[in-house]
Specification:
The complex is a heterodimer of chains A (about 70) and B (about 190). Helices cover about 70% and strands about 0% of the residues of chain A. Chain B has one domain: Multiheme cytochrome fold (Orthogonal Bundle), CATH 1.10.3820.10. Chain B is about 60% helix and about 0% strand. Classes of the chains: A mainly alpha (about 70), B mainly alpha (about 190). Chains A and B meet through helix 2 of A and helix 1, helix 2, helix 6 and helix 7 of B.
């Protein structure tokens, strides 16, 4: 986040470490995007849903099986 | 290695220079749609009979018994599969049930009921757990198909009409109170007295 301000200042050179290597930065950005969308977000989503299921299970162990829906 | 992680961590929190907001947003959205579809497909797959009877504990015990009952074979060809009765349809309860299945995986790995004898010994406990569940939710999984409001009492036997109007209609009893052991055999009741 702190880099944003720096990069937008005209006339100043980019101070980030890969400034001299656009290809590397492009690769890194691509890999980061793919990792986030294909690996991390799905894994997190499954963990959240699974965790929720376990919490409901523990709750049911205390409160008993789920009650009736009103017909 | 540490340097590499640091670089990617940095990339993670920095605006992209080479990929447009449009691409990243639409790309993320499309990935989300694919994930959601895949998630539901996987969830559905765990509800299939093929999946349930994939292990011999289910196939040779409870499934084999179901095959002889009216819930499996009958004149109209409508039948119940495992998940119709044993997996809640409500999403929260379904997810909780799927997580409870981790206990079944545990049992499979450690062979808790890997023989017929072990299954018969455990059967009462298993049945009681399921009966308690049906009792608590007012036999919801029965009622998903069998609706009291649409029962034609004139087509039922006298005994059934009496019981249904005396106990079911008044809410005093629920399906499972009388209809135990209809899709699988009853546990050996003598075990309770041991």
């Amino acid at each position: 986040m702190r880099d944003v301000g720096k990069q937008r200042q005209p006339g100043k050179t980019d101070m980030s470490e890969d400034a001299g290597n656009p290809a590397l930065r492009r690769t890194e950005e691509f890999r980061t995007f793919i990792f986030l969308t294909v690996v991390m977000a799905p894994v997190l989503a499954v963990m959240v849903v699974g965790g929720y299921g376990f919490i409901v299970w523990v709750y049911q162990m205390i409160a008993g099986p789920p009650g009736a829906v009103l017909h | 290695m540490k340097d590499l992680l640091k670089r990617y961590w940095h990339t993670l929190w920095r605006p992209s220079r080479y990929y447009s907001l449009g691409l990243l947003t639409i790309g993320g959205f499309v990935a989300g749609v694919i994930f959601w579809g895949g998630f539901n497909t996987a969830l559905e797959a765990t509800n299939t009979e093929q999946f349930c009877t994939g292990c011999h504990e289910m196939r040779t015990n409870v499934y084999e018994e179901l095959r002889g009952t009216i819930h499996f074979t009958n004149r109209s060809g409508v039948r119940a599969k495992c998940s119709d009765c044993h997996v809640p349809h409500n999403w929260t309860h379904k997810i909780a049930r799927k997580m409870q299945a981790s206990k079944e995986v545990w049992g499979k790995i450690f062979g808790t009921i890997n023989t017929r004898e072990k299954f018969l010994d455990k059967r009462l406990e298993l049945a009681q757990r399921e009966w308690a569940r049906f009792k608590a939710n007012d036999s919801l999984e029965c009622r998903n198909c069998h609706e009291l409001d649409y029962m034609d009492f004139t087509r039922q036997s006298k005994r059934a009409v009496d019981a249904h109007s005396r106990s079911l209609e008044t809410g005093e009893k629920t399906c499972i109170d009388c209809h135990k052991g209809i899709a699988h055999r009853l546990p050996d009741i003598n075990l309770t007295h041991q």
